[in-house]
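Example record

One chain of 523 residues, shown exactly as stored in the release files.
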Amino acid sequence: MTNVIALFSLSPIHSSRYRDSSEEKLKTINLLLLLALAGITIFMCDANAQDTNDSSISEKVVAEIFPDASRIVPVDSPVPHTIVFGGRKLLGYVFYTDLIAPIPAYSGFPIKSLVALNPEGKLILVKIIYHQEPILVIGVNDSILAAFIDQYEGLSVKERIRLTGAGKPNSIDGISGATITAMVLNRSIDKSSKAVLDAHITDETTKTEPVVEDTPFWHEAWTEKKFELSVLLFGLTVLVLLLLFQDWVVVHPRFFNAFRLSFLIYTVFFIGYYCLGQLSIINVVTFIRILATGFTWDTLLLDPVIFILWGFVALSILLWGRGVFCGWLCPFGAIQELMHKLSMKVGFKQIEFPPMLHERMLAIKYIVLIALIGVSLNSIATAAPFFEIEPFKTTFSLRFQREWYFLVYAIGLIAVSLLITKFYCRYICPLGALLSFSTRFKIFNWLRRRSECGSVCHTCGNDCSVGAINAKGEIDEPECHYCLECQTTYWDEHRCPVMVSKRERRERREKRRSAIPAVNVDE
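Predicted structure tokens for this chain:
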């Protein structure tokens, strides 16, 4: 058992961190600053939303699509579009999708696309005019986006256009790593095109296949991900059971360490790579923008995996603090921890920062958080390059298939974790910084400590891989990743001095009891 504990134990990081009232005040000031910036963001979001509602289509634009056009007739209501004639012949229709079917995308705003349609209902042109999707700014290059858009040419809108593969009738391929954005873009093109075509058809029998409005748009995504959601909910249920019965589980370190290792692998490969369920600070900024433009559940429900994970994170924060997400459900954090465990098994020497430097470096992630919120005041698309400080898109969404400098950054952070445990999580991660504020609202405190912790014993503090136990033996909640390593030590009869003393007393009693000879009493 001792060997197993040693195999999965983490490198000691000696830290003398004292959390006094001045530091608490500093965090409170930071939180107030963030709320102020969020308020400014809401104001700016509303202003930006007004700037994209230009419905005019110039004759120059029409001429590029229809070279034979001689006359255009703008129609403002009820379906805004432009009718194009070549002499007396009807050539087609041109319109903006966001004015007809303003479906909020991943950023919380509709994608503005220019669409040209012929009288027979076949698409002539689709062109993205404006969007605030981060994945389309950095991550999906122009050639991939152009290839996706070009698939619409010649498709009929009289039947529903699906993202089930280009080889199937009236269907196209999606965008790898931008599934939700592709779904929204496709639905807005499909729905607005049908509305324009139906506006000019008087015979009800020849109208297009209607878009079913009784079923919410997000329902399709949830239906298509039944398997992913089932496995995810099962994993979350298992994690909840572990946390509820943690005191009974951690007393069996062999089982607990094996379980934790297995769950970290599950988090990386299933949640991270298969489900693309890496939560990001972009999700938070998007939520702020949704509040600014009018709250709707439809946008939040577009990605069922992300929705369920955020719901679970909110619940776990109230019960146990933010550490449950950072220590168990963050795929990039799980990669770093697995790398650290590998390095310990190989025997790499760990790098430990001096306590004073460590203290200063903890502030970096809060500075990064404030900076990201500040640069997102204009738009998410404008701020997209700055959000690349999160290596999540490179690692999971695009699976390292992008420019070399993004690869160097992401792989470099993973490599650093071989020598410094969770370097990115502890010092850079803006999402972790934001979640750390919420820890003060947790209801329960189930991480056990003794009066001897930090006075006669520093075992847990030395073993804590993220340095979340100070010299007094107190757990620094905003920095704790809830890995439960300290709890295995708490109950360990060979490492915790209190438990060692209890074990030795028990063994002496048993030895004395066994030394007393048995006496047979005859009746």
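Notes: The radius of gyration is 29 Å.
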